[in-house]
Amino acid sequence: MRWLFPGIEIRIDARCLDCGQPILIRMRDEKIVEVNPPTVVAHMNIPLAKALTQG
Fold first, then answer.
1. What is the spatial distance between Cα 40 and Cα 22, in angstroms, rounded to a whole number?
2. Distance CA 11, CA 36 (A)
3. Does any domain span residue 17?
4. Residue 4 placed within a domain
5. Residue 7 falls in which region: left (phi positive, over 0), alpha (psi -120 to 50) or beta
6. Number of domains in the chain
7. pTM summary value
8. For residue 33, what pLDDT is reported?
9. Considering the domain boundaries, does residue 3 fall inside one?
10. What does each of the 55 residues of the chain score in pLDDT, given as a tens digit?
11. How far is CA 11 from CA 5, 41, 46, 48, 49, in A?
């Protein structure tokens, strides 16, 4: 999200495609600030090598 909204906290409200449960994700730049429920499983579309070096 950094390239679209640098330094700004983004809130994503969605529903699980499987069960319809609400999902909340808050991010700032490339950091995840909050995930609710904490058991959410997600896909990040970046190369694994890059993800591992970004901490």
1. 10
2. 11
3. yes
4. no
5. left
6. 1
7. 0.66
8. 93
9. no
10. 667 888 999 999 999 888 999 999 999 988 889 999 999 887 777 777 776 676 5
11. 12, 17, 20, 24, 26
- Element (DSSP H or E) covering residue 53: helix 48-53
Three-class DSSP category at 55: coil
Examine residue 2 and state whether it is found in any structural domain, yes or no: no
Task: Report whether the peptide linkage leading into residue 37 is cis, meaning its omega lies within 30 degrees of zero.
Answer: yes
| Gap between the Cα atoms of 2 and 8, Å rounded | 8
- Kindly report the backbone phi and psi dihedral angles of residue 52, in degrees, each rounded to the nearest multiple of 5, phi listed first: -70, -25
Picking from 29, 32, 25, the residue whose alpha carbon sits closest to that of residue 11 is: 25
45: its two tokens: 């579309």
Rounded Cα distance, 17 and 40, in Å: 12
Full domain range(s) for residue 20: 9-53
